[in-house]
Fold this protein.
Amino acid sequence: MQASVHSHEVRPATTVRRKLAAYLALTKPRVIELLLVVTAPTMILAQNGLPNLWLLLATLIGGAMSAGSAGAFNCYIDRDIDRVMKRTQGRPLVTGELTDREALVFAYGLGAASIAWLWIFTNWLAAALSLAAILLYVVFYSLVLKRRTSQNIVWGGIAGCMPVLIGWAAVTGSLTWAPFILFLIIFLWTPPHYWPLSMKYKDDYAAAGVPMLAVVRGRAQVGLQVILYAWATVACSLLLIPVAGMGLVYTAVALVTGVWFVYETHRLYNLAIRHEHVSPMRVFHGSIAYLSLLFLAIGIDPLLPF
């Protein structure tokens, strides 16, 4: 009897924890992490020093809520695909941890809260850009492009570029050329980041009927596209030096990490055309390291006298 009572005492708390964990998973936390990694350095560059810490925190919170809302909408829209793909079968709407209605209410609520939060604690421009980011990811990418074209991730990636505009707008209340260069860096970086992942999970995407480039083109063609976008990304990163007056630290990091990133994409292509075993996830993880180091340099550079 005592054991039975004890189990009833524990179960509600366990259920609440599982529910909260499911809602958190719905927001795609790893994507949010990457978006926040680019937002804070952008704000430092916009301020040309450390911005107000409350403004920084408020923008990161609002940005995380906005990205979380977009992720939740995406999980709702793609729930049929997620049930087919092995990579996504642990998502809350597939496992049944959350109902479709719960996910949709959460997505709308979090999105509205993010826009209100940014409007109140930053400014109207940052809030408007946040709304645009959600709509781009949910409507333009998830509903329109993803299931229709192999270029889905190229144009759908625009939503992932928005945090740098939001961060800049939060600090300055306006937009100049520098944030658009940052926007373009992330835009060009997205295909060589995501296409290697789609190479690894090509069969998953094919089974789900999603025309990722790796599904409709051979490995060599995907590898070549990855190289071209990687080169363009690095070239764009160097363009920031004259536009934003970047110093030695950023210049050195952009050159060194850029060479390394391009080398990794060439290595992937060379293995693909020789029909040898490729490790696309090496480029995928390498691309994350590249962007993180580049934006770390963007955040450090304005704080140094050289």
Remarks:
- The chain is about 80% helix and 0% strand.
- Residues 1-10 have pLDDT under 50 and may be disordered.
